[in-house]
């Protein structure tokens, strides 16, 4: 198809870009993590969001090389920012994964290689997966996650609560972090159901020894609720949108 050809061209022409969104410590307000988000800079003033091309990128397998590039570039930037004193030493970098990547037979080896090449401490890389990935091919995914855990990389469940949620996988897969889906955070102060779900996910995470991130925090009321319920980190437009490289640097400079 036309779009398929355009994506191959975009990859060859290095039209993919990374945007960055901070995650803030609920205690102290410092930056604990940075999530990396893929964009397609199709032309000078045309930025395409992943929702418009990610599934095709997966279908044609191009997500594997693009994903490797995302991983390597993210680790490289984190190390560069840390050296320049722009981010705290313990600030992690969070990279989204597709199922297609994690079921590659040598995925954990690839991650290990990238960490070595970029001299990144494994515990500073967080890999975000969705609940749907856990349903793919349970055995392959489980094996890959165990290998990643052995490497010392952290695993986060993204959009938690919206997928095919099951408590059993929280027991059987090595998971370090739950990211509460923004649809619950959005109306946590006006919807009793969302409030109950958010406070329950926070308790669940903590009872399982996991960290918990509130996503999609857009206002002080949601933030207040997350503070009161002892969420660990927050992310959302209230703090910053995902920003292109130079704007992100300007943002972190205002923080220090
Ligand atoms: O940035 P935006 O809100 O448009 O992101 C939409 C979705 O795209 C998010 O759910 C996110 O998980 C996914 N996404 C963003 N960047 C990447 C990436 O580098 N790799 C993969 N696999 N998914 C990504
Ligand atoms: O599914 P995932 O969490 O990876 O998606 C991340 C995307 O969520 C970001 O690319 C960004 O566009 C979007 N996002 C981040 N913060 C907010 C927010 O506060 N409100 C809304 N509506 N979207 C957000
Ligand atoms: Mn994410
Ligand atoms: Na999410």
UniProtKB/TrEMBL annotation:
It comes from the Bacteria. Transmembrane segments: none annotated. Residues 1-256 form the EAL domain. This is Diguanylate cyclase (GGDEF) domain-containing protein. It comes from Shewanella psychrophila. The lineage of its organism: Bacteria, Pseudomonadati, Pseudomonadota, Gammaproteobacteria, Alteromonadales.
């Amino acid at each position: 198809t036309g779009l398929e050809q355009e994506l191959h061209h975009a990859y060859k022409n290095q039209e993919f870009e990374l945007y960055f969104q901070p995650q803030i410590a609920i205690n102290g307000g410092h930056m604990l993590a940075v999530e990396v988000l893929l964009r397609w800079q199709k032309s000078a003033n045309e930025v395409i969001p992943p929702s418009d091309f990610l599934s095709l990128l997966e279908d044609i397998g191009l997500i594997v090389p693009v994903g490797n590039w995302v991983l390597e570039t993210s680790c490289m930037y984190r190390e560069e920012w840390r050296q320049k004193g722009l981010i705290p030493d313990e600030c992690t970098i969070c990279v989204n994964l597709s199922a297609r990547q994690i079921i590659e037979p040598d995925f954990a080896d690839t991650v290990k290689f990238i960490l070595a090449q970029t001299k990144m401490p494994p515990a500073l890389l967080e890999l975000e997966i969705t609940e749907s990935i856990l349903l793919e091919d349970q055995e392959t995914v489980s094996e890959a996650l165990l290998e990643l855990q052995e490497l010392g990389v952290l695993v986060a469940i993204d959009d938690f609560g919206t997928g095919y949620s099951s408590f059993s996988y929280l027991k059987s897969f090595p998971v370090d972090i739950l990211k509460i889906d923004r649809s619950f955070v959005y109306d946590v102060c006006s919807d009793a159901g969302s409030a109950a779900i958010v406070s329950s996910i926070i308790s669940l995470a903590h009872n399982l020894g996991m960290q918990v991130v509130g996503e999609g925090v857009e206002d002080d009321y949601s933030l207040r609720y997350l503070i009161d319920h002892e969420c660990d980190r927050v992310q959302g437009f209230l703090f910053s949108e995902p920003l292109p490289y130079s704007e992100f640097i300007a943002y972190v400079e205002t923080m220090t």
